[in-house]
Amino acid sequence: MGKRSPLMNVMVSSVMKVTRLLRRDFNEVEKLQVSRKGPADFVTTADRRVEKELVMELKQARPEFGFLLEEHGEYKGEGDSRFIIDPIDGTTNFLHSIPHFAVSVAVETRGELVAGLIYAPLTEELFWAEKGVGAYLNDARIRVAGRERLDDALLATGIPFKGKDGHERFLAEAKEVTENVAGLRRFGAASLDLAYVAAGRFDGFWESGLNPWDMAAGIVIVREAGGYVTDLNGGQDMLKRGDILVANDRLHAPIQRMLRRAHRTLDAG
Ligand code: IPD
Ligand code: CA
Questions:
Q1: Ligand 1, from 162, 184, 210: best to mutate by most atoms within 8 Å of Cβ?
Q2: What integer pLDDT is reported at residue 1 of this predicted model?
Q3: Tell me, what's the pLDDT at 36?
Q4: Is 71 exposed, middle or buried, given 0-12, 13-18 or 19+ CB atoms closer than 10 A?
Q5: What span, in angstroms and rounded, lies between the C-alpha atoms of 183 and 24?
Q6: With a 6 A CB cut-off, is 50 part of the ligand 1 pocket?
Q7: Rg of the chain over CA atoms, in angstroms?
Q8: Enclosing H/E stretch for 256
């Protein structure tokens, strides 16, 4: 069993507390699906409330930390650490009563991601990692899968939707990738896509157009599970660029080559 630091214990207990609300809200959403107005407003309110409660809990335990929040923006702290929070990653799933969503909390210290927690309240799966300590699913150590061949690889991605850029680019990537791998999935929560790579369920994941709170916790968890994490250019600017590619060290380069081939084909028109 992984020994959690006091900071990770605070993160876990705060998240567990607020996800009681989230489970109740999810049951409510299931009822609202049938109404004509639909549950959209309700979910936006739930999202904000969960974030607010989580900030209150974390602030009590770590008053000097800053915050980068999906719903409420950025707050500078007195110290050099901050929490990066996505209260419901997979909001569209939540809205449609699909139980695949998560709360994601990361800690960044002096610009470095040092801890990450992703909790899926409906499946009760808690993925967490701290720098140098390893990655865990609940209490069991997790590692990225050992597959080495693209033919065997199951990959995950995100598909741009209305209001997002990159539709053509995604189609070019998907064509190249699906012709070469065992399968491609779009489950709708980037944090859980990353956690699933860390747990060896997916062999790799890439996506563009992401925000820091979608990826921050997952980056720590994949790294600590032995995975290789870069932006789509092969650098370490994932949070700034908003794109990411993760896999084990054998599959990372072949996946990057497929994506580059797709981009060249697109550019050649
Ligand atoms: C979204 C999910 C999704 C990804 C989107 C994100 P949200 O986050 O992570 O998988 O494809 O780009 O915006 O809006 O559900 O918190
Ligand atoms: Ca998100």
A1: 210
A2: 64
A3: 67
A4: middle
A5: 34
A6: no
A7: 18
A8: helix 252-268
- Please name the residue whose Cα sits nearest to atom 15 of ligand 1: 90
pLDDT in tens, 132-180: 999 999 999 999 999 999 999 999 999 999 999 999 999 999 999 999 9
What is the model's pLDDT at position 199?
98
| Under-50 pLDDT residues of the chain | none
- Identify the pLDDT of residue 45: 85
Q: Quote the ligand 2 centre to 268 CA distance (angstroms).
A: 33
Residue 204 phi/psi, 5-degree rounding, is -170, 165
Q: Please indicate, yes or no, whether the overall pTM of this predicted structure exceeds 0.90.
A: yes
For CA atoms 178, 179, 181, 183, give the dihedral sign.
positive
Domains of the chain: 6-141 (3.30.540.10), 150-268 (3.40.190.80)
Residue bearing the CA closest to ligand 1, atom 12 = 210
Distance 46 CA to ligand 2 centre (A): 14
* The pLDDT of residue 18: 94
217: CB partners within 8 A, 6+ apart = 84, 104, 105, 106, 116, 117, 118, 191, 194
C-beta 212 within 6 A of ligand 1: no
